[in-house]
Amino acid sequence: MTDILTLVFRTFTSQTDGGEEPTVGPASAATCRTLLVGDPCISRSVLLLAAVTAASELGVRVVFFTQTQIQSLPLCLQKRVPSLSPESLKKIKFCYPRTLEELLQQVAGLHEPAGTSPAPPALILVDGLEGFLRGPAGPGGPDLGERSRAAHLSALLCDTAAFLTHLLRPSRSDPCRVVASFRSAVDAAAEDPTLDVLDRYFPARCTLDRAGGYEAAAAGLREVWHVYLSGVREREDRPAAATRERKLLISLDGDMEFRSV
Question: How buried is 94 (Cβ within 10 angstroms: 0-12 exposed, 13-18 middle, 19+ buried)?
Fold first, then answer.
């Protein structure tokens, strides 16, 4: 399940972690659509880890959509990815759409030959869906409610991933992956209608939940986060896989690593 994030966890797992090493199984169209839910700052860091890991470990091209300019990569990338190189970073294309309309146009542009040259991306990352869904659509953009916007954008992402999967074969057997982050505007205990819509298109979920400050202080860390990977329901008659938990440890100097729970 959620194979690209499992690879991230394996790459950035503490060397002293005695837990079972996660494995990366065969990818499928369902397992490769994942929604990352939690704090925007940490979610963005995890998405950047996914981008660099995919480019360096898998050797695939990545498209990273975000409204906020990327000033620098997380410090831990240079420490923990031995294969990180300028050539790997060239495989990542950063796009900065300001509105939902611009994002829709840029995602749709991946269908065009110029948008997939020199090779189609095998991973699409969208940082901060809430910023696009709650903000103005832009001049000429669709005047839709937040849930309709979520469905429209998600459907386009899924359609684009399916199209790129067709282009990638027969050179690659894996489908094009889509990972997006979202922060709910409602209390964790309440139901979020927009999140319900997104769940229809993203069968897997990765939830980031910050631990109490005492836990980080006791370990001499800046922050500790609980990371929950939910299972994927690929068939209606098959129950979803059990939730798998890990911890994300952030040191005082900003280094990040995962640990099995």
Answer: middle
